[in-house]
Amino acid sequence: MSLYGLARPFLFALDPETAHRLTFFLLEKSFYSKSVPSAPVEVMGLRFPNPVGLAAGLDKDAEHIDALARMGFGFMEVGTVTPRAQPGNPKPRLFRLVERNALINRFGFNNVGVDEFLRNVERARFKGILGINIGKNADTPAERAVDDYAVGFEKVYSRASYITINISSPNTKNLRDLQQDENLQVLLSRISSLREKLAEKHGRRVPVALKIAPDLEDLQLQAIADAVRRHRVDAVIATNTSTGREGVEGLPHAQEAGGLSGAPIRSKSSEVLRKMHRHLKGEAALIGAGGILSGADAAEKRAAGADLVQLYTGLIYRGPELVGECVSAFRAK
Fold first, then answer.
1. What radius of gyration, in Å, describes the C-alpha atoms of the chain?
2. Cα 320 from Cα 323, distance rounded (Å)
3. Bridge-based pairing state of the strands 208-212 and 235-238
4. Which residues are catalytic?
5. What domain count does the chain have?
6. H or E stretch at 260
7. Which residue from 71, 170, 186, 283 puts its CA 20 to 30 A from 38's CA?
8. Reported confidence tier of residue 1, pLDDT bands at 50, 70, 90
9. Between vectors from CA 20 to CA 273 and to CA 78, what angle results, nearest 5°?
10. For the domain that residue 67 is a member of, what is the CATH number?
11. What are the counts of helices (DSSP H) followed by strands (DSSP E) for the chain?
């Protein structure tokens, strides 16, 4: 049994957020380092040492970049960060559904704000590919949401290998409305124009990814794909957490508000990935996320069209060994 396998029963006896903080404390104090097979890929014009990354949400404040990088990830995504610090939703806001290898969270973009976040990024020694995931503050009116994304985008631009526009968390009121066609066009038009100015200023064009929900109909996905092409978005991350409860009905905590992640959303997320692959026809990269708890799950994402994959809930249930397992599965083709 792995070291994490031995520690998991103790961690799972604790409140989930307490366990989260303790795990980071132990990871920071340890000398843990894991080498994984080399599997370089080029996506979004970037060279990744392997296609398995850390999803946003695990390290919201970019405080643990170096410790997490020792797990062997090919890239890291940190955040979601908002222009101003905010506490997120009241606790408890994270729930385990152990019987189904799942989580429900309603964090609500709790973070230290973009200025402190960037100080954390600058302290990190990590020199690999770092994605920064940006969102809007909860108290920013819907009609000014685009302004929040523009502020975040401009501030993180010089420090990011790529920037993810998160419009798919279910835990910030009205955020998912930004996935609707007219709202999305306005947002991406603003970001596209801003990127051109920043690219000239900084001498490099930072790739942009769009993170979408798994709870979208095919017509909505087609509209998103059209917007992605029109505004030259480099990648789509499919997907965020789900508001659905298929596969967890009747379990303790299943009716808690928030986004469901883990094994129960794997198929739904993979289906969104397949549809986006069909709609985009290779004109943007695809990053598969949602329900990856084994190498076979990562291979499923690849078969559905993913160029890269990201892990979050799977790490909670499987530990660091999952990273290398997924890299090997990608290499096996």
1. 18
2. 6
3. parallel
4. 169
5. 1
6. strand 259-262
7. 283
8. low
9. 50
10. 3.20.20.70
11. 11, 13
